[in-house]
Amino acid sequence: TAAMASRALNLFTICRRQFGTTGSLASRVAVLGASGGIGQPLSLLLKQSPLVSQLALYDIQAEVSGFDGPASLSDCLKGSRVVVIPAGVPRKPGMTRDDLFNTNAGIVADLITAVAKTCPKAMICIVTNPVNSTVPIAAEILKKHNAYDPRRLFGVTTLDIVRSNAFVAEAKGLDVSKVSVPVIGGHSGVTIIPVISQAVPSVSFKAQDRETLTTRIQNAGTEVVNAKAGAGSATLSMAFAAEKFVDSVLQAIDGKRGVIECAFVESTVTEAPYFSTPLLLGRDGVEENLGLGNLIEFEAKLLQAAMPELQQNIAKGVKFVKERY
Ligand code: NAD
Ligand code: LMR
């Protein structure tokens, strides 16, 4: 139950691991919004990671006793190499992710202010929606504190990849753990652009099936929101996806070569100032943006269709910080 999970989290609030012969660097990871639907299972999954030496869990609710409320936030963040932010409200049926802006923009801005002051070198992984706006908000806040390094700020879009991998594997009878479909663009409706033509292993679909699959991937979050009928949005799959992304970041900062993940970052690949593409990760975050690759005509049209909403979402985030902070 949620109560049991909360009690377990209390026990895990600061978990120290001994590093013996692995040679790996000990990483403190902070989760901001750790009591929530995503935060609880994400924290439990991170607790299993041999790359995490300390797990600092923060929320404004009382369940997590270690770091509870704004007075304890900087203690939570101190020394963190990675900060994951799933804090904020989720959608209810009938809402778009942009409808969350009014509540979540301020939450992210305040949390990032604390990150800028306390652990400005941390890798920041933002889960809170609307990701297309919360990432530019975070960047603008970091700039105000002279703490912005575009290589270290990520909007977590991994759930779109997890879903694409699952749906393609299901359609083609493949082992999902061996399927990899890049998803580019942003993280809302038409801004989610699955690049099925670049799937590994290569798969072929009739035009109509490709279109149906693409629409399903773009609407998968809404499908979950409707199925939960007012009880929130995807939590367990998101926890799985965020743990996968954070694990890749940790492996890369530990020196592993060739780690590639898609994420929503500052970008010059298209005319949008933030855009998700496959990224080569290294010790300092984004080492190389691997770009769009070859898109088939259908995907190039998806890209065109995504631009207006994506640009609007980004501009809204930038304007919010310029006007309020
Ligand atoms: P939830 O309501 O279950 O949990 C959110 C938690 O955030 C709560 O425990 C709440 O107390 C906490 N919180 C609120 N304000 C805070 C603050 N200022 N500081 C610290 N904690 C704070 O919601 P959830 O289902 O966990 O979803 C969280 C967010 O993640 C939502 O915005 C949702 O839209 C988003 N989300 C993103 C993706 C993605 O793919 N990027 C996927 C799923 C959900
Ligand atoms: C998702 O894709 O599941 C999340 O962005 C949550 C949502 O609101 O759909």
UniProtKB/TrEMBL annotation:
Class in the EC hierarchy, top level: oxidoreductase
GO term, biological process aspect, one: malate metabolic process
Family designation: Belongs to the LDH/MDH superfamily. MDH type 1 family.
Domain Lactate/malate dehydrogenase C-terminal: 157-321
Subunit details: Homodimer.
Binding residue positions for NAD(+): 33-39, 59, 104, 127-129, 238
Binding-site residues, substrate: 91, 97, 129, 163
GO molecular function, one term: L-malate dehydrogenase (NAD+) activity
Domain Lactate/malate dehydrogenase N-terminal stretches: 28-155
Upper taxonomic lineage: Eukaryota, Metazoa, Spiralia, Lophotrochozoa, Platyhelminthes
CDD domains linked: MDH_glyoxysomal_mitochondrial
Name assigned to this protein: Malate dehydrogenase
Catalytic activity: (S)-malate + NAD(+) = oxaloacetate + NADH + H(+)
Organism: Macrostomum lignano
GO cellular component, one term: mitochondrion
Domain of life: Eukaryota
Pfam families listed in its UniProt record: Ldh_1_C, Ldh_1_N
Record-annotated active site: 187
Keyword terms of this UniProt record: NAD, Oxidoreductase, Tricarboxylic acid cycle
EC code: 1.1.1.37
